[in-house]
Design brief:
Cytochrome Bc1 Complex, Chain D, domain 2; 4 helices; 74 residues; binds protoporphyrin IX containing FE; mainly alpha
Length: 74
């Protein structure tokens, strides 16, 4: 995906997001969604999704798109 946490058109992103240094990948996305505050202490996101199938489906959806938001040709 090559998007860096907290860096994209989101002026209110907390410093914990901005300073996390995370570049979103399948592994970091899945860890974050399962436990946002464990992965990124201080983040404002408190929703977590522990349903592996759901998280896998979300990743499958997101990976259709490039960092520019456009659908990748397959
Ligand atoms: C499946 C659903 C969700 C996904 C995939 C998701 C994913 C993410 C990701 C990847 C970020 C980090 C963005 C970045 O900094 O690059 C984020 C931030 C955030 N999310 Fe979620 N999220 C979901 C649902 C929710 C829900 C339901 C809420 C609130 C009830 C929420 C509240 C937030 C907030 C407030 C932030 C900003 C955190 C900060 O700047 O500290 N999210 N989300």
């Amino acid at each position: 995906m090559a998007l860096t946490a907290g860096k994209r058109a989101r002026p209110k992103a907390t410093l914990s997001n901005k300073n996390s240094g995370i570049v979103w990948s399948e592994a970091s996305f899945k860890e974050y969604l399962e436990d946002p505050q464990g992965k990124m202490p201080g983040t404002k996101m408190i929703f977590s999704d522990k349903n592996e199938k759901e998280v896998a489906d979300l990743w499958a959806y997101l990976k259709q798109f490039g960092a520019d938001g456009k659908k990748k040709s397959q």
